[in-house]
Amino acid sequence: MEAAADNQSPSSSDVDVTPRGASSAVLRALQLIQYDDSDSKLQAAKEIRRLTKTSQRCRRLLAEAVIPLVSMLRVDSPQSHHESALLALLNLAVKDERNKMSIVEAGALDHVIRFLQSENINLQESATAALLTLSASISNKPIIGASGAIPLLVNILKHGTTQAKVDAVMALSNLSTYTDNLTVIIETDPVPSVVTLLKSSKRSSKTAEKCCSVIESMVGFDEGRTALAAEDGGILAVVEVLENGTRQAREHAVGALLTICESDRCKYRELILKEGVIPGLLELTVQGTPKSQTKAQTLLRLLRETPYPRSEFQPDTLENIVCNIISQIDGDEQSSKAKKMLAEMVQVSMEQSLRHLQQRALVCTPTDL
User: Fold this and answer.
1) How far is residue 66's CA from residue 77's CA, in Å, rounded to a whole number?
2) How far apart, in whole angstroms, are the C-alpha atoms of residue 92 and residue 65?
3) Could you say which DSSP state residue 313 is in?
4) Residue 263, CA atoms < 13 Å, CB-side half-sphere
5) N or C: which end of the chain has fewer CB within 10 A?
6) What is the pLDDT of residue 159?
């Protein structure tokens, strides 16, 4: 699909266009898109799609094609026009803030929402990709949120194709950064579908990163926390991203777990601990982003503390070892010393992690294997 191709490195054939050639092609496309006959418009849309696939310069030069392209999305336009015009608009919007805004201002959003509900799978995928790109604009976030698109994106997250689901969760991640959209998103109960997508994704992927971004936003609500805890393997999936995700994904994952634990420590502490989170948290205190390090240290303290006097624990229990390590890392210790302590902690926690894996293996059924 075109949206997927947009994220790939351009081939030499895609970009080997001289400035003079590009200008001539741009002028021809702008002329064709103004003609009344449908064949010329369709040819122009395809040409604009091609020219703007990899060229930021062409996206600027072809900005005036936005309005006639949007007009091709109307219900009374030939169906053959819809996808070509939508993909041309999608390419025009990539990495161009002004075009993103112009496309929404020209009335494209109503048509995109209509296509999200289409039985045409290709059109539905293209519309989802278009919303992903348009939702990256700060100015567009409140408009898209108020348009009714969010419930449709969640529906695609539940029932769409694999590519559409990935684009939908990324669009929801974009939209969730605008506060007023969060209430709308949480009302659609997206957490189960996001967790399902997360569990099927590679933990170090961009998809996992965006899933954790949405989860971090949703667990700020009681409904989101309840949904994540109730989802089979939900917290475990977040812990696995904390261990193996990208730096940004790990930051979202530890942020989500911290928010959950802070909301009701007594309710969620054991749920988080039983998924073997300690080694990953300790690694984050040394190797994570500054935000991850702070959040990991705070979460470790919450997981460490108990209502019982510390004297009831032996000096070398896991909790007291964690306490000792964190108290030393809190200062301006050298990185090498912190890493050495981390290695010692991982050694101590191996037995606990092994027990956890054995317990998980015992509940597996033959169909799980």
Assistant:
1) 16
2) 9
3) S
4) 19
5) C
6) 95
Give the tokens for residue 40: 């010329």
The whole-angstrom separation of Cα 168 and Cα 318 is: 41
For the CA atoms of the chain, what is the radius of gyration? 25
What six digits make up the tokens of 203? 């933990």
Residue 108 CA to its chain's centroid (Å): 24
Mean pLDDT of the chain: 84
Structural tokens at position 234: 């939900």
Tokens of 72: 């091709």
- Look up residue 211 and give its two tokens: 């899933």
Q: What is the DSSP letter of 369?
A: -
Residue reference for tokens 């449908």: 38
Please tell me what DSSP assigns to residue 9: P
Mark 213-235 as b/e (b = at least 16 C-beta within 10 Å).
bbbbbbbbbeebbebbbebeebb
The burial class, CB within 10 Å (0-12 / 13-18 / 19+), for 140 is buried
Distance between CA atoms of residues 17 and 106, nearest Å: 30
What gap in Å lies between CA 248 and CA 294, rounded to an integer? 14
How far the first Cα of the chain sits from its last, in Å, is 33
């194709």: which residue's tokens?
161
Instruction: Answer whether 62's CB lies under 8 Å from 30's CB.
Output: yes
Residue-wise pLDDT tens digits, 51-95: 999 999 999 999 999 999 999 999 988 888 999 999 999 999 999
State the average pLDDT over residues 345-369. 52
pLDDT of 329 above 60: no
Tokens matching residue 178: 């605008």
Residue 247 Cα to chain centre, angstroms: 13
What is the per-residue pLDDT for 186? Answer: 96
The pair of three-digit structure tokens given for residue 254, joined into one six-digit string: 């530890």
> Could you give the count of Cα atoms lying within 13 Å of 23 in the half-sphere of its Cβ?
3
> Residue 324, CB half-sphere, CA atoms under 13 Å: how many?
12
Report how far apart, in Å, the C-alpha atoms of 224 and of each of 19, 39, 49 are. 52, 49, 40
Separation between Cα atoms, residue 135 and residue 44, nearest integer Å: 26
Is residue 127 within 8 A of residue 82, CB to CB? The reply is no
What is the spatial distance between Cα 276 and Cα 349, in angstroms, rounded to a whole number? Answer: 9
As a whole number, mean pLDDT of residues 166-189 equals 97
pTM: 0.80
